[in-house]
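Figure 6 in text form: structure in, sequence out.
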C-alpha cells in the first residue's frame, strides 16, 4: 500500500537527525522526509491514475489539470511535522480521493509509529487495521474529551483559537492538543476522542480524516454547521460523535 511505503520512508528519517527548513513562519516547518515521502506518494498515484489531479502539501498541483481531471487526490506526507521534527511519535501520512468539488470518496491515514492504518470509503464504513470503528456514545459535553490545534500565525493573529480553547476548558472533562489534524479526526472516528475543532486547515490536512470520522458515525461541519468546510482553502472544522455536535457549535458561536 502507498501509505505504508510513505511510512517506511518517514521512519527511516525519524531514526536519524532531522534538519528543518522554515516555510511561512518560525513555527511552520518542513523536513526532507516531507518532500521525499510526498514525491513517493505522487509518483505511485500517477503511475496508477495518470488522468487524476494530485494536490500535495509540499508540491502543489500535479498530474492532470484540475479543470479536466475526473478525480482529485489530496496528499499530506507528514501531518504533524512539528511532532516529527521533535521526535515526538505522533504524526501520520494522509491520502484522500475526492470529486472535483472536494467531496471525499476515499480516505487513508497511516500512523507509522504505531502501525495503525485508518481507512474509509464513502458509504462503506470506517476501519482501523481492517476492523470496523465507531464514534463514542457520549451524550453531554461535560463528559467529553475533545481536542484542537492552533494556527501557524498564532503569535500575530488575534483570531488564534485561544478564546475558543478557553471557552471549552470549563465545559468538558478533558481538553487535548495532539498536533495532527488527520489523527484527531481519525481518533474521533475510532472513539478515542469525543470531539475536535480547528481553524485554518487546508484540504490535505482533513480530507481523509473527515471521511473516516463521518463513516464511523460522526458529524463534521464548519463552525456554523455547514457540512462542506473542505470547499474553503482555509476551513474551520468541527467533528464530533454527532450527539455532542450542537453543544460544540454553541460553544464556538458564543465567543
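Output sequence:
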Amino acid at each position: 500500500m502507498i501509505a505504508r511505503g510513505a511510512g517506511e520512508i518517514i521512519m527511516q528519517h525519524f531514526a536519524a537527525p532531522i534538519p528543518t527548513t522554515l516555510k511561512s513562519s518560525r513555527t511552520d516547518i518542513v523536513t526532507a522526509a516531507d518532500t521525499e515521502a510526498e514525491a513517493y506518494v505522487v509518483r505511485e498515484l500517477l503511475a496508477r491514475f495518470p488522468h487524476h489531479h494530485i494536490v500535495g502539501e509540499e508540491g502543489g498541483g500535479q498530474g492532470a489539470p484540475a479543470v479536466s481531471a475526473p478525480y482529485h487526490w489530496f496528499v499530506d506526507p507528514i501531518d504533524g511535522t512539528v511532532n516529527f521534527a521533535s521526535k515526538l511519535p505522533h504524526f501520520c501520512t494522509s491520502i484522500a480521493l475526492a470529486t472535483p468539488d472536494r467531496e471525499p470518496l476515499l480516505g487513508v491515514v497511516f500512523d507509522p509509529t504505531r502501525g495503525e492504518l485508518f481507512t474509509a470509503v464513502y458509504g462503506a464504513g470506517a476501519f482501523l487495521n481492517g476492523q470496523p470503528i465507531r464514534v463514542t456514545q457520549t451524550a453531554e459535553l461535560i463528559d467529553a474529551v475533545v481536542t484542537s490545534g492552533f494556527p501557524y500565525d498564532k503569535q500575530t493573529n488575534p483570531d488564534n483559537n485561544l478564546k475558543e480553547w478557553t471557552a471549552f476548558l470549563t465545559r468538558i472533562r478533558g481538553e487535548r492538543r495532539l498536533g495532527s489534524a488527520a489523527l484527531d479526526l481519525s481518533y474521533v472516528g475510532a472513539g478515542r476522542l469525543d470531539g475536535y475543532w480547528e481553524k485554518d486547515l487546508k484540504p490535505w490536512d482533513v480530507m481523509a480524516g473527515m471521511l473516516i470520522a463521518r463513516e464511523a458515525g460522526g458529524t463534521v461541519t464548519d463552525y456554523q454547521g455547514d457540512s462542506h468546510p473542505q470547499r474553503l482553502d482555509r476551513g474551520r472544522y468541527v467533528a464530533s460523535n454527532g450527539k455532542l455536535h450542537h453543544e460544540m457549535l454553541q460553544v464556538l458561536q458564543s465567543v
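Caption detail: Helices lie at 2-14, 32-48, 81-85, 162-169, 181-189, 203-215, 245-253.
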